[in-house]
């Protein structure tokens, strides 16, 4: 069973959200395993409710996994999980990174260097003019433009990127196959064709107010920084800026007339320390260490700098060749020092650190970059 397919299938089970998935993984259950009696006991002992265990026993079978996989294929939706090499590294740095991402379009854009551009749904002519100017400059500098495909500034940012043959990523607060707002059907189709539409919600999920703050953390999480162009004092754009700050990213804001309701939020951000932006260079000078293509080199370097604790080092010592090692052999080697569940938990941590890869047939291999 493929881990990618398994994680997507688990994610499709009603009631399985971020926290439930985290508890399942903490219990040592990887979604490429069968629900054996020993696995079920481990789940029960790690805080998984009897109701959820019962639901898993009812749903978790090859037919369900096949159904989910075929449904995604029919909708031309690509799946990237936290454990995939394609998963955006910047997104891994945030609190509660999505376990599963559903993408229509070019999934590779999620790993390129992005700038989030967000703002009010009711922009002034000034706000729209500034959006076109700044997005054009950032596209010409090589940035992917990330936004939420909402009416107003978001939509203008996406359109401007497309008009200038740039790349853009739309993060939705609904399923990746759901067009919202509906008047953005043509924009949605164009982004799917030349950019990417992404969501952490399963396909078919309709928009809901509670989904948008979670969506905003992904917009900022994919990006080196967030640019806010016109925002009211209380708005989703400020939530995105807050997430950007929490994630250690840059926050930029465009000043506007003190008499404009749409500029109160951006003026507030500037008072709080966001960088005041009047041209693209104001943004670019904060990224003096970046040039197009450099991010991939930095990511490759970062993957080589993992630190391992004593238990992880012990498990890694069992990989004394480049050949895949079956899970039963790893359990046998570590049987005197660790219980089986602990070995699987450590293997999960090593997967998260990209130190080992899991292959079909419950076999593991050590990544070559990790060898000294």
Describe this protein with a few key phrases.
372 residues; alpha/beta; Arc Repressor Mutant, subunit A; 3 domains; nine-stranded mixed beta sheet; three-stranded antiparallel beta sheet; 17 helices
Notes on the structure:
Residues 79-287 form the Smf/DprA SLOG domain. It comes from Thermoactinomyces daqus. Strand 5, helix 9 (185-194) and strand 6 (196-199) form a beta-alpha-beta unit. Helix 1 packs across helix 5 and helix 7 (125-140) packs across helix 8 (153-163). The protein is of the alpha/beta class. It has helices at 3-11, 18-26, 37-44, 50-59, 62-74, 89-92, 125-140, 153-163, 185-194, 211-221, 236-246, 264-271, 280-284, 294-302, 310-317, 327-334, 340-352, and strands at residues 78-81, 100-105, 114-119, 144-147, 168-171, 196-199, 223-229, 250-253, 275-276, 325-326, 356-359, 363-366. The model is unreliable at 293-305 (pLDDT under 50). It is 44% helix and 14% strand. The protein has a 9-stranded mixed beta sheet with strand order 1-2-6-5-4-3-7-8-9, sandwiched between helices. It has 17 helices and 12 strands. The longest helix has 16 residues, at 125-140. The protein folds into 3 domains: 3-74; 105-298, 3-Layer(aba) Sandwich (Rossmann fold), CATH 3.40.50.450; 310-370, Orthogonal Bundle (Arc Repressor Mutant, subunit A), CATH 1.10.10. It is elongated.
């Amino acid at each position: 069973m493929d881990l990618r397919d398994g994680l997507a299938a688990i994610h499709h089970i009603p009631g399985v959200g971020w926290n439930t998935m985290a508890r399942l993984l903490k219990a040592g259950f990887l979604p490429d395993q069968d629900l054996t009696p020993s696995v079920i006991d481990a789940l029960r002992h790690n805080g998984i409710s009897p109701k959820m265990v019962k639901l898993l026993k009812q749903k978790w079978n090859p037919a369900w996994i096949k159904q989910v996989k075929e449904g995604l294929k029919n909708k031309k939706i690509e799946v990237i999980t936290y454990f995939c090499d394609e998963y955006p590294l910047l997104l891994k740095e945030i609190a509660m990174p999505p376990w599963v991402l559903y993408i229509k379009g070019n999934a590779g854009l999620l790993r390129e260097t992005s700038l989030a551009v967000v703002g009010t749904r009711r922009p002034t002519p000034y706000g729209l003019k500034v959006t076109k100017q700044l997005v054009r400059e950032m596209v010409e500098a090589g940035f992917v433009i990330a936004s939420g495909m909402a009416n107003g500034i978001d939509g203008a940012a996406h359109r401007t990127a497309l008009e200038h043959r740039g790349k853009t990523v739309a993060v939705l607060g609904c399923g990746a196959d759901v067009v919202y707002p509906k008047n953005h059907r043509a924009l949605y189709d164009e982004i799917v064709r030349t950019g990417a539409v992404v969501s952490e919600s399963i396909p078919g999920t309709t928009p809901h107010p509670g989904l948008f703050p979670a969506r905003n953390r992904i917009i900022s999480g994919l990006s080196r920084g967030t640019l806010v162009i016109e925002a009211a004092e209380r708005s989703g754009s400020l939530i995105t800026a807050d997430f950007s700050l929490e994630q250690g990213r840059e926050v930029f804001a465009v000043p506007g007339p003190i008499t404009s309701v749409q500029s109160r939020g951006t003026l507030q951000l500037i008072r709080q320390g966001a960088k005041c932006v009047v041209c693209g260079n104001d943004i670019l000078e904060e990224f003096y260490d970046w040039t197009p293509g450099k991010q991939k080199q930095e990511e490759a370097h970062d993957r080589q700098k993992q630190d391992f604790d004593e238990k992880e080092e012990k498990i890694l010592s069992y990989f004394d060749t480049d050949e895949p090692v079956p899970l039963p052999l790893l359990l046998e080697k570590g049987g005197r020092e660790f219980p089986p569940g602990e070995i699987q938990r450590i293997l999960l941590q090593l997967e998260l650190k990209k130190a080992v890869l899991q292959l079909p047939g419950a076999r593991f291999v050590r990544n070559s970059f990790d060898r000294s």
